[in-house]
Fold this protein.
Amino acid sequence: MLRSWVGERHHTTVSVMTDLQNASVTILGSTGSIGTQALDILERSGKGQALRWITCNTKWQLLAEQVEKFSPNGVAIREEQAWREFKDAMPRYTGRVLCGDDGICEAAADSENRVVLSAMVGFSGVLPTLAAIKAGHTIGLANKESLVSAGSILMPAVDTYGAKLLAVDSEHSAILQCVVGERRDDLEKVIITASGGPFRTYTHEQLQHVTAAQALKHPNWDMGAKITIDSATLMNKGFEVIEAFWLFGLRADQIDVVIHPQSIIHSMVQFVDGSVKAQMGVPTMLVPIQYALTYPRRTPLDIPRMDLASMGQLTFESPDTERFPCLALAYEVMRQGGTSGAAVNAANEIAVEAFLQGRLRFRDIPATIEHVLHHMEHVTHPSLADIVSIDAESRRIAHDFAHRHQL
Amino acid sequence: MLRSWVGERHHTTVSVMTDLQNASVTILGSTGSIGTQALDILERSGKGQALRWITCNTKWQLLAEQVEKFSPNGVAIREEQAWREFKDAMPRYTGRVLCGDDGICEAAADSENRVVLSAMVGFSGVLPTLAAIKAGHTIGLANKESLVSAGSILMPAVDTYGAKLLAVDSEHSAILQCVVGERRDDLEKVIITASGGPFRTYTHEQLQHVTAAQALKHPNWDMGAKITIDSATLMNKGFEVIEAFWLFGLRADQIDVVIHPQSIIHSMVQFVDGSVKAQMGVPTMLVPIQYALTYPRRTPLDIPRMDLASMGQLTFESPDTERFPCLALAYEVMRQGGTSGAAVNAANEIAVEAFLQGRLRFRDIPATIEHVLHHMEHVTHPSLADIVSIDAESRRIAHDFAHRHQL
């Protein structure tokens, strides 16, 4: 393995940004949970004016507010109707206003970008992330679905184009923080922590009746709706396992998951000498977002400090893949490879959407994914076109299944 | 602060030994707990033959066995009687057999040394450690008393002679493992963990009656007698605080102690962004000893791996300096500076010896140290001669005090 820890093989440079001084940041998905927190960090550091592009899917009003506040060089809006409304509402905005996936990809690939934060939700992040990779950019990747669906496309492209991928999940940021200064060969395995979600202690019976409102109350993390449901099913943890597989070039048997309800240890790395390093702190996405922007340096961040003596204890247990089968499905994806990740991700997006709309039971989320994984055509060495096609077809099968099991 | 993490200012080299291949190791104190474990590591790695010097205080028989097994280039024995007996018993040994502090210092300074492991007990380690520093060597420092007594002499010498100091304590090794790849300016504070020792839950009343036999039963670590008593009084933790102060160039307010009875987290580093890194593992000195030999690389070590899910929980509490005043004395040493560390270390050595011999109560260990600290002459900017003189005088005062409070 010649690849360094930030998913790039050809460069030995370790500095992404010496600090936020020279930030020329593009945020794909600036109206989402990660995007708004990234803007918060840039604002706190007084560098909000260094914003290059911000993009959104439909929330043009919030994007317009961000434009007023941060004056980015340009914006891109995915949905055409939202794009029209933004243009009508912001006649005096002098920056470029791009539209659609092409517009977002153009923003992602802009050669003036210093760091691209890829924080779109779901499969929609694949093409813009690939565009940023092909431009050789440094990318803070908050869109784990890109790697789950298209890791076999994205990671070779990272090599080819000399890009850098820095994960913005708290877990993968923890792993990265634990491996700086270490040799790749000295890593034995990673131990990804999981809060266990809001239903960690629920019985099979109780899990039958949980509602979207219950699932949206995550005990530790304040996140978007989709990822919060993914946390409740442990599909999010499964995706993180797959993300670690791609990002750090690990084997499936080098990735363990341990339930840690307090979410203080964000993940761990075990080395060949039996030594384990953990990254810890109060649960906040501000740390991993900022770390991706300042890696491998740090800048002061005014957040509460961890106080273990006050907490008293940290607890740990093994994950239960009987009650939470989505985690086991992630390991199946790593075994199968090919398009299985794209199929699972697409099925999950459809199932979660149906659950959030009250059309599907909680237990039928994993059932939908499993059905799609086992009934979908499998391509072992897929092209990007294969993945896009499997994504679409998986959604169709998932829709059918969800419809048949509709409440 | 231009100093790197291994206590050297002039070199930016990070590699001590690429592995154990080219080991030419000298072990000062090879018959002690750390020394024998270091030999175990060299034997496991098949590199026991690369031993340059081994030294002991009085245990010449064990040293003779080590000579038979590892064929070092030479030995040094501190006590003259033991040196005579070794020579009589080993007439066919062709290596050099040196005697006394001078002999040990000669071994420490040998220009052929690749790494010097300084694992003598107490103040006796100061001069040999200084000799190794003046030779510009890389030193694995297991003798924390050297820094407690003479940090103001040793650390400037490390700079002057371009030496490297790598701590072999599990706590300081943990800190070093957490800061590799990090910038010095990004460190906010260190959090040193303490098991709390065998009397962690004892009341004031119970502490009056504890015996040496009880104190020697440490819950987690199998160590030498002196350090085990130091662990029971928390004086050891106080020494580690002072050691961190010198080794990592910290202020006293940058060093916290948290009680963690399971000894799984060996210490932590908090950074300016609120992120905390911890080094963890099953309690064994093999990891920090080997890490000092292979830093910043690692080599495989066949020890049990940590299993948090099986353990279930890690607990934490604040240290109680009412019941364990030795920890507070350490902070007083950092405030006073000068010769206060030498006075406290000397008083502690005398008090522990008296306690081990059943001549002094457990509670009178801190009383002896406090008495010496408050009655000893204080030199603000001491020479080495001042420190040697304060050490001797402190021992005299401590003896008198211990005698007056004799059981």
